[in-house]
Amino acid sequence: MGIVERLVPDDLWELFQRVVPEAPSRPQGGGRRRHGDREVLAAIVFVATSGCTWQQLPTASFGLSGATAHRRFSEWSKARVWAKLHRVVLDELGARGELDWSRCAIDSVNMRALKRGT
Predict the structure, then answer these.
(1) pLDDT of 63-117, one tens digit each?
(2) Could you tell me how far CA 85 lies from the centroid of its own chain?
(3) How many angstroms separate the CA atoms of 13 and 5, rounded?
């Protein structure tokens, strides 16, 4: 198992594919081939979990540069991919009964603060 598969296991990859937007088409043709979404996601996860900068991303491990990973991170952020992925993961875990909502209690009681005299 390579670094990409360790950072983005099959289960996560399946969920991510539900929320990632289609790659934009290039009607003019030509240019470089777009790097695969799974490799880019793994690079983003690596940067987020290792504490390295985009420039320090080990290109040989992922097959893409830090600049490419950052550009796709920005693109996906604008498309709200991370919020959508968060929701999909919560829905999946909830469907499996693997969420413990008891630790997420919200107190809905509203109280006015007491005014103390001087």
Answers:
(1) 999 999 999 999 999 999 999 999 999 999 989 988 887 776 666 656 566 777 6
(2) 6
(3) 9
What's the number of CA atoms in the CB half-sphere (13 Å) around residue 39? 14
Burial of 54 (0-12, 13-18, 19+ CB in 10 A): middle
Q: For residue range 26-54, what is the model confidence (pLDDT) as tens digits?
A: 777 777 788 999 999 999 999 999 999 99
- Angle (nearest 5°) at CA 101 between 100 and 105: 140
**pLDDT score at 102:** 75
Backbone angles phi, psi at 49, to 5 degrees: -100, -20
| CB neighbour list of residue 50: distance below 8 Å, 6 or more residues apart | none
- DSSP assignment of 45-104 equals HHHHHH---GGGS-HHHHTS-HHHHHHHHHHHHHTTHHHHHHHHHHHHHHHHT---GGGG
| Cβ neighbour number for residue 44 with a 10 Å cutoff | 21
